[in-house]
Write a structure and sequence with these properties.
Blueprint: H1 2-29, E1 33-38, H2 45-57, E2 66-71, H3 78-86, E3 94-98, H4 102-108, E4 121-125, E5 131-136, H5 144-148, E6 154-157, H6 164-176, E7 180-183, H7 189-197, E8 203-208, H8 209-215, E9 223-228, H9 250-259, E10 269-272, H10 278-292, H11 295-303, E11 311-312, H12 313-322, H13 328-338
Parallel strand pairs: 1-2, 1-3, 6-7
Antiparallel strand pairs: 3-10, 4-10, 4-11, 5-8, 5-9
Helix pairs in contact: 2-8, 2-11, 6-9
Length: about 350
């Protein structure tokens, strides 16, 4: 009888602990606001994904917090990332959406980086982009061979080192010998699009096809897609060649692989600042993964022509950790290309 009584007490106690733990998690986010700091300009591809995710993420978090997007642009995303690492409270109420390729810049010695990328809590990414080079028809370049034979460099829009628009252009200029004049300082895809439309620049490389076909629908009528720089061709672009096909040396192929292709999974990364409680990191990772499978989220993405191909946070963590293991030779070459002396 005593044993039965003692077992009953243990059972009731376990229920109380379980309910208390669930209540604590629920009560933390209930009535709170979860901010997504968007590192790039409103109206661009990153912003489109962030706002779509914000509309659905909260319902997958116990307590159903309100999720808002705040744009914090500048320095190719570096202002937002430094803010997240150094100033954001590690309470699980602030995450940032940025191009995780900036993580590589840390190991190349870029000035202005005030973070240690492996210490971020990596939540996930909604897409592995299929990067392309898009040029205005006004340049007269319709194919990659036209571009290679052009006597006049094509002006490409960039943001800053550590962003795909800048990094991909620099890698392709070196690896393939393309005549490129990189014009940096733009705050995001939306401002680059405007600059192309106004004739300030001739195009851009490193643009994700999945986002540009959704956000540049009208502009694409006056542009040519001349090159893909991913590992494999996008199914919708079967006739557009891959950059790797034009690389003539092993060094060139390595530069394209590491400097562009290995970084694509980190594009559109969502991270928390360091030292967020593990249970809240797990909560937000699970909520992010659940959002990626939410039927209403998927339906809205399809309606907006936004493509999804998510990567979990654990995999992003592993990629970033691998940057510390690059050989000195490869690191030196990448540094010369991606961080040119001014």
């Amino acid at each position: 009888m005593a044993r039965l009584f003692f077992s009953s007490i243990l059972f009731v106690a376990s229920l109380v602990v379980g309910v208390k733990g669930g209540w604590a998690e629920d009560s933390f986010y209930k009535g709170k606001v979860l901010r997504i700091i968007e590192a790039y300009s409103a109206g661009g591809g990153y912003d489109a994904y962030a706002r779509l995710i914000a509309r659905h993420l909260g319902k997958h978090i116990l307590g159903n917090p309100t999720v808002v997007v705040e744009n914090m642009t500048g320095a190719g995303g570096l202002i937002a990332v430094n803010y997240l690492y150094n100033r954001a409270e590690p309470d699980g109420l602030t995450m940032a959406n940025w191009n995780g390729a900036l993580s590589l810049q840390q190991y190349l010695g870029r000035k202005g980086i005030e973070f240690d990328a492996p210490k971020f809590e990596w939540i996930g990414s909604p897409i592995r982009p299929s990067p392309v080079c898009i040029l205005s028809k006004s340049t007269g370049v319709t194919t990659i061979k036209d571009w290679m034979n052009s006597k006049k460099p094509v002006k490409l829009g960039g943001m800053a080192p550590g962003t795909s628009l800048s990094d991909d252009a620099r890698i392709l200029k070196t690896a393939l010998g393309l005549p490129i004049q990189l014009v940096e300082g733009y705050k995001g895809g939306a401002t680059v699009k405007l600059a192309i439309s106004q004739g300030e620049i001739g195009g851009a490389c490193g643009l994700a096809w999945e986002t540009q076909k959704a956000t540049w629908q009208q502009e694409l009528e006056n542009m040519n897609i001349v090159l893909q720089v991913g590992r494999k061709p996008h199914p919708e672009l079967p006739k557009i060649p891959l950059a790797g096909e034009f690389a003539k040396t092993d060094d060139a192929r390595q530069l394209i692989k590491i400097g562009i292709q290995d970084l694509t999974a980190l594009g559109h990364a969502y991270t928390l600042p360091p030292k967020v409680r593990k249970d809240r990191v797990d909560t937000l990772r699970k909520a992010f993964d659940a959002t990626m499978q939410d039927p209403k989220f998927l339906a809205e993405a399809q309606q907006a022509n936004i493509i999804l191909n998510p990567t979990p946070g654990v995999e992003l963590e592993e990629i970033v950790a691998g940057f510390a293991k690059l050989s000195p030779e490869i690191s030196a070459k990448l540094k010369d290309i991606l961080l040119p002396a001014k």
